[in-house]
Amino acid sequence: MAKILWSDYFSVNNEFIDGQNQKMIAIINDFYESIQKGSTVSETESILNRLEDYASAQHPYEEELMKSINFSELEAHQQAHVDFNKRLMNEHQKYQQNRSTYPVHDLSSFLKEWLVNHILQQDKKFAPLIK
After folding, report:
1. Is residue 6 part of a domain?
2. pLDDT at residue number 131
3. Residue 128 needs a FRET pair 20 to 30 A away by CA distance; which of 17, 53, 91, 99 works?
């Protein structure tokens, strides 16, 4: 997995949401870099905690914005956020239970793929409505 590089291709033309997505990318890139250098348990824990905290805080803003514009796919978008948060917490628990054999590379790939797909396939759907 390579790092995610932000470009205007990811933009939803909302400065706040773009900033939030850039922050998520930065945390995922930190996770990737920590794996590459052979991170300690405490570093990995810290990054996973940051990611969980940030996702929990970021998603409600997006959902409130979609609600304010009566976005027709709000429920599906909310469910995608719920599913992501659950998966992230579940994977974090698995890591805590078996740090020595947990496939952190797989988690890193999942995080990258989920965020890129979420931005390009779901966030982009409401972008034209918030201009």
Report:
1. no
2. 66
3. 53
Nearest Cα neighbor of 51 from 87, 79, 80 is: 87
Tokens linked to 10: 């990811």
Query: For the segment 31-46, what is each residue's pLDDT rounded down to a tens digit?
Result: 999 999 988 888 999 9
Question: What CA dihedral angle connects 80, 9, 7 and 87, to 10 degrees?
Answer: 10
Say if residues 28 and 112 touch (Cβ distance below 8 Å).
yes
6 is written with which tokens? 């932000």
pLDDT score at 21: 94
**Total structural domains within the chain:** 1
118 in any annotated domain: yes
71: alpha, beta or left, given left = phi > 0 and alpha = psi -120 to 50?
Answer: beta
Q: How far is CA 117 from the centre of its chain?
A: 10
Q: Is 99 helix (H, G, I), strand (E, B) or coil?
A: coil
